[in-house]
Specification:
Chain lengths: 316, 519
């Protein structure tokens, strides 16, 4: 058990080092000298040299890489070139926004997908099941940003029941916060739910043909009762894997949705500073996203053990 | 066990439908009063009475720093110039100079010494007076610091010394007479900040204007509040919020939902019809300083020939270009001059659209079967224009290979620094940027001593000869087809019908809210 954990941790650390190296090299390869971009048209060589020294970009790449990594280990992501403030100070306020957006989107997509997916499995030869599958197929083809624009226009401009865009912090006005998040969460969740419905459906179709399900039905459980009591846990093994992958794609989708709904999240931050070629901010945000995805994967692995007692025995 | 089954029967259909419907309904039902009132959506607790007046301005590009002179980006100046930071003189909406911190000024007979008489009432938001000494320190900072944006230090390069004669009289000495310099003093390069805060310009406000920084929510908005120490008529709003929308559709939606008062620059001209109802909205169309320019590399072998350059200029149907790319808004221009420049003259008739003449000129130059490297900046207006320019050139027999350049980094590297191009398109947003043609190293590699001499003569001329002499310089460029100036980017502003006093022209980097009122 300890060896397994140690091995997993080792792989985790190696992945992070590899990712940091890749991110750093790619950011170095972006065209343009930050000092020249900051100073603008017509800067003299002397001015550029002075600015580069101020930014620290005149140091060798290896020194910059090691300084960056050493800083991150202490929680210091460096200083933004363009704004001169700490990168962690820029990232910090965006985390609750993107976190709430991604978290609620996942939650809502599960809440939608689970019952509809089960319905689609149980009634797969009836019109209800076929209808759910058909709607899911159409839903999968809709890009989240398009759903976002549509929701924004319908609820924000035509019916005026929710703000079309913008963000209100939870601490300022909790109701306003929920209202400002409702449409972006729905836009992301609907598309994700459409994807998820298909996995839920096939997972439960598998359950329906299992012996334990037949046995449960034989001792008097209703179809839904047997599915809920015995099916959910078994089906969730494969669903958790899909959810882990989906959370990663929700994070990417959040970057787009933040643009559509003008939310001050991680994605907006990333795009703003990509335009200015502020390498320190780009590196910091991408590194954070990589860390999030790796952590999700680790959590998925842990959850296998929690869900499936057989794995626990095997580990011992 | 069996007791659980009955209610589970009703579980699926109800749960899904009910949950989604419930959350949505609950969230939209408890609509707080704040949601529709302008600007208060930010929820900042204001110290003023309930009738606090807020103006919410939607803008596209959020600044990365508050320091207006840190780099070429105009976003910090859009928020702060004239609103937070003042200048000795101000450029008004018609492009004319007006007194601001300086009540009046005089020029020596050899036109190299300017004496400014400061308004003795003027003071910074900190309460410190704006003294001649403080102004001198500002001019010195811009012209000597190695880390301020290059265009600002270049604008002040003509200054050789600044001296406080007494607390409200300032003498500035120039190395040669320059008419352009005074205009620069009225723009971002001439910003006057409290010298005690020079090292904090990126995050704090230290100006003498009617507003000061209240709260900057990165990724969202910058809120200004009224400066309680303002030395002249106080600002009309308790709060002015610049709210940033990277997406033009989101900006339009916010305007239609009523959460903003002004769209400071409409990026989607074809969406303007949504705001046609004059009872609710006001549309303003005016001038900017931005010339969308088809840059010609004057040092490339094919384009050294005047006839080829003229042929390219004559091949392009600028009117059709404006119709296609800006929905018919914008003004055709014929040189590096816009209508609000004091030396404007309509030169669009020079080398005007004439494809037959273009073909003839190409034949005369022996430049048939020409293929040119076309590297437009990858910006929406530039790539849209590039398609039509390429088609127009094709029609007179010039082939192009289009390679869009990511902007700014890749474009700056390939076009601006290395001049590895024949044709490019980018907008030149700086005011009075005719001067760039005097620099043979600038990316159009234009080297014409006659133009440079005329430009310098105009710059050094007596104030009343400035405009007529500069017109001659602009005409040299047009005759020479040094570039092809496609059109002036229109300044398209949408406001609620209740907003008045806003200038339709953007003559400086500022979005000047000091003249705005609401009914």
């Amino acid at each position: 058990m300890i060896a397994t954990v140690a091995r997993r941790l080792g792989v985790f650390a190696l992945s992070l080092v590899g990712a940091s190296l890749a991110i750093f090299i790619i950011c170095q390869a972006l065209p343009g000298d930050p000092a020249r971009i900051l100073l603008g048209d017509g800067a003299s060589a002397e001015q550029i040299a002075a600015k580069a020294h101020e930014l620290g970009t005149d140091r060798p790449a290896i020194v910059r890489y090691l300084t960056w990594v050493a800083g991150m280990l202490r929680g210091d992501f460096g200083t933004s070139y363009a704004s001169g403030v700490a990168v962690s100070g820029l990232i910090g306020p965006t985390l609750p926004v993107t976190g709430a957006l991604a978290g609620f989107s996942l939650l809502v997509s599960v809440v939608i997908a689970l019952p509809f997916g089960m319905l689609a499995a149980l009634r797969r030869r009836r019109w209800e099941g076929v209808a759910v599958s058909a709607v899911a197929q159409v839903g999968m083809a809709i890009p989240a940003f398009w759903a976002g624009i549509l929701l924004s226009i319908l609820f924000g401009v035509v019916w005026r029941v929710l703000p079309p865009n913008g963000y209100i912090p939870l601490t300022t006005d909790p109701i306003g916060w929920a209202r400002s998040l409702a449409l972006p969460v729905l836009a992301l969740a609907l598309v994700q739910a459409a994807v998820l419905v298909r996995y839920v459906r096939s997972a439960f179709i598998d359950v329906l043909s299992e012996d334990y399900y037949r046995t449960a039905r034989a001792v008097g459980w209703s179809r839904w009762g047997a599915l809920l009591r015995h099916g959910v846990r078994n089906a969730s093994l494969s669903l958790v894997t899909v959810l882990g992958l989906q959370l990663a794609s929700i994070l990417v989708g959040a970057i787009v949705i933040e643009q559509v709904f003008v939310l001050p999240g991680l994605g907006s931050l990333l795009l703003t500073y990509v335009r200015q070629k502020d390498v320190m901010v780009i590196q910091g945000v991408v590194m954070l996203l990589v860390l999030a995805v790796l952590l999700i994967n680790a959590l998925v692995e842990v959850s296998y053990v929690l869900i499936d007692p057989r794995l626990r025995t095997a580990e011992r | 066990m069996v007791t659980r089954t009955p209610h589970a029967r009703f579980f699926p259909r109800r749960l899904a439908v009910a949950l989604t419907a419930l959350t949505l309904a609950a969230i939209s039902a408890c609509s707080p009063a704040s949601s529709s009132s302008t600007g208060s959506s930010a929820g900042t607790p204001t110290v003023h009475a309930p009738a606090a007046k807020t103006l919410t301005v939607a803008a596209t590009a959020e600044p990365s720093t508050l320091d207006m002179t840190a780099g070429p980006a105009v976003a910090p100046a859009q928020v702060q110039l004239y609103n937070v930071y003042e200048t000795l003189v101000k450029i008004d909406g018609d492009g004319a100079l007006q007194p601001l911190l300086a009540q009046r000024w005089s020029v020596s007979t050899d036109r190299t010494v300017y004496t400014f008489y400061l308004n003795p009432a003027s003071k910074f938001a900190s309460g410190e007076p704006v003294t001649a000494d403080a102004v001198a320190k500002n001019i010195e900072r811009i012209r000597t610091s190695k880390t301020v944006g290059a265009k600002y230090s270049a604008a002040m390069a003509v200054v050789t010394g600044e001296k406080a004669v007494d607390s409200s009289t300032l003498e500035v000495t120039l190395s040669r007479p320059s008419n352009t310099w005074l205009y620069s003093m009225a723009d971002t390069a001439g910003m006057i900040a409290d010298p005690a805060s020079f090292d904090k310009l990126g995050t704090e406000s230290a100006g003498s204007g009617p507003y000061m920084l209240d709260k900057w929510t990165r990724g969202d908005s910058i809120a200004l509040k009224r400066n309680p120490n303002y030395w002249a008529n106080p600002g009309r709003f308790d709060s002015v919020v610049f709210k940033y929308f990277p997406d033009p559709n989101a900006m339009n939606a916010a305007m239609m939902a009523g959460t903003i008062d002004i769209i400071s620059n409409e990026q989607a001209p074809d969406a303007l019809s949504q705001f046609a109802d004059t009872a609710k909205y006001t549309l303003l169309e005016g001038a900017t300083n931005m010339e969308v320019t088809l840059g010609l590399n004057n040092s490339s072998p094919a384009l050294k020939d005047l006839k080829v350059r003229q042929a390219i200029a004559m091949a392009i149907d600028k009117k059709k270009l404006i119709t296609n790319t800006e929905a018919g808004h914008g003004t055709v221009i014929g040189s590096m001059v816009v209508p609000t420049d004091p030396y404007y003259e309509d030169l669009s008739g020079i080398n005007a659209y004439d494809p037959a003449k273009a073909k003839q000129l190409l034949t005369e130059a022996g430049a048939t079967n020409l293929t040119l490297r076309f590297k437009p900046a990858a910006l929406p207006y530039a790539t849209a224009a590039a398609q039509q320019v390429a088609a127009d050139l094709k029609a007179v027999g010039i082939n192009t290979t289009i390679q869009e350049q990511q902007f700014p980094a890749a474009w700056v590297d390939a076009v601006y620094i290395k001049a590895d191009y024949d044709l490019t398109i980018v907008g030149h947003a700086e005011a009075r940027d005719l001067v760039t043609y005097t620099n043979p190293e600038y990316y159009w590699r234009y080297n014409n001593p006659a133009f440079t001499a005329q430009y310098q003569a105009a710059d050094s001329a007596a104030a009343d000869a400035y405009a007529p002499e500069m017109k001659k310089a602009a005409k040299i460029l047009a005759d020479d087809a040094a570039s092809v100036w496609l059109y002036m980017m229109p300044n398209l502003v949408v406001t609620k019908a209740t907003v008045t006093g806003l200038s339709k022209n953007a003559t400086t980097d500022s979005f000047d809210v000091t003249t705005i009122a609401t009914r």
